[in-house]
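We read letters as residues; the integers encode the fold. Take this protein.
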Amino acid sequence: MLSSKIRPGRHCVFLLHVHLVFVTKYRRRVFTKIILEDLRELFQGVCASFEAELVAFDGE
């Protein structure tokens, strides 16, 4: 279950959700299984530094 944490600011309250999509230039398989595993670790590290949660990660 997604844990929602509403964050207060000085004059506002917010809850942010971000959906990132990376598109390759050509329609061919660029992201291999090894690259996807490396990207998952990288994205989890970035999310941890921003106190965020990586909810889903997938590659085709």
